[in-house]
Amino acid sequence: MKKTIYYFTIFALFSIGFGFSQQKSTIRVNGLGKVTAFPNAAIITLELDHVKPTLREAVNENQKTLSLVKTLIKNYVKDTTQIKTSLISTNKISKWDSKLAKEVFVGFESSQKIIFTLLDLNQMQNFTEELLKTKFNKIQSIAYFNTNSEELMKQAQDLAVKDAIEITKRLAKSANVEISSIVNISTNNSANEERFSTERNEFETYGKAMGGRGVSSSGQLIEYVVRVSMETEIFQ
Which end of the chain has a smaller Cβ tally under 10 Å, C or N? Predict the structure, then answer.
């Protein structure tokens, strides 16, 4: 029994020693890559809203406006199937009358949303000018983006890898060690990720006038940021 325990102990120590001899020394760093670009397209959400004495009148007015707005949008899109419309939402509207000290019926409300993609921001001004000729209620939101986002993300990924390599070389030089091959490299950012610059409640229409914020034809600068983790083998 004692011999068995002795041989087992020797074998275990040998296995542990062999495992440590195979372990590699590495440097782990994080790299950062960033590319910026202005948007060249936008996803626009329009809102229609009508209040009339009867529900039928409100719905009919909403449908007339929807038809006019969709006809207008078709002049600015390549694929008309990409024009999305929500279901009509209806509601009973009332307001507080301070003289009567009670809620007073105003009418029935009919509202609906239209979403489409404007692929040429140079047409934004022309579009909004024509849109004001209709009875739409407001531009609810504009999500600006760049149609070349996939290529821009790839550029950011390349810069992140170059940054990680530069950091690795600098740290290795400071530590007086040599670098070998890359053991592992990873990122949580996909080249297919979209980047948006979103603005909400752009402007509302009050009769023939406009209120709220103005509409930008260019949007805000979009940043494409990628972070990578890289592990490189080193030896002295």
Answer: N
> Which parts of the chain sit beneath pLDDT 50?
1-21, 201, 206-212
Cβ pair 113, 48 in contact under 8 A: yes
SS3 198: strand
Global pTM value: 0.74
Q: What is the CATH number of the domain that holds 45?
A: 3.30.70.2970
Q: What is the domain extent for residue 152? A: 24-39+148-194+218-236
Say how many domains are in the chain.
2
Q: What is the Cβ-side half-sphere exposure of residue 205, based on CA atoms within 13 angstroms?
A: 19
* 80-109 b/e (C-beta count within 10 Å ≥ 16 → b): eeebeeeeeeeeeeeeeeeeeeeeeeebbb
Cα separation, 87 vs 141, in Å, equals 18
